[in-house]
Amino acid sequence: MTVRHFLNLSDAGGDAIAAMLADAIDRKAARAAWPKGRPDADQPLAGHVLGMIFEKNSTRTRVSFDIAIRQLGGSSLVLDAANTQLGRGETIADTARVLSRMVDAIMVRTDDHAKIEEMARYASVPVINGLTDLSHPCQVVADLLTVIEQGKALPGLEAAWLGDGNNVLHSILEAAGLMKFNVRVGTPQGYEPAEEIVAWARANGAQVTLTNDATEAVAGADIVLTDTWVSMGQEHTHNKLAAMAPFQVNDSLMSGAKGDAKFLHCLPAHVGEEVSESVFEGPRSVVFDEAENRIHAQKSVLLWCFGKL
Ligand code: CP
Ligand code: NVA
Description:
The chain is α/β, with parallel strands linked by helices. The chain is built from 12 helices and 9 strands.
């Protein structure tokens, strides 16, 4: 079998994403109220080791993958890139080939997406994208799970994205194409998502609307999503905050969405910037379900990579 890398959602495709979501729902229900470190009854990845490389900070991705592989019966080790030979200039190609002899899968968080593609080219074990500047597919599997838990079907869902056209949005757009939902994207001019990803989503059946009007973006939405206005590694773009201000998700903006609309945020949040405290802490917010769901979603990603889904 060819090695199953998970660099973007389209590597798996819509049917596999649906299978991941169904499995995540089942596994989550089967272990409700169990201690978090206790393995699932079937331990489908017993004996497997996940290596994780971080070139950027992380809380959720790091902890959720660690707990996910443990719950599947395996174990993990974390490599902070700065403390490895990778941080001293050893090539990605050599690192990929060495780690492939030592661990069963590699999760990477890095900046340039080309780096993870290179890792996948040389690795003989699955490589998983734990966030690049281009995309954050693991996050979006958790987002889709959270939406389904709220009783909302994915096909035909109306999603609104507010703020920066960033990596998380790119994976939402990819998901929209795969799972057939619609996205209205409200960004300031100049902060739109990558054209080729918008085109891909549209070509795959998603209706994608780009607007510079925040009110238009949220009108009638089933879910409203946002993220930090300044992603990791883009701190030099800090002067964009003024342009972003009208896109803050606050009560006034949320009142334009459907009455039962939910608010999602991948976290970490900057309350008072991209989201008001009233929305973040309010009854429509499902951000901590979303964070927990990283574990359940990442288990499905791992199982798919190992050919178990
Ligand atoms: N949402 C997310 O990926 O969080 P971390 O940066 O903490 O991993
Ligand atoms: N867009 C954010 C997501 C953090 C999980 C970033 O790349 O920093």
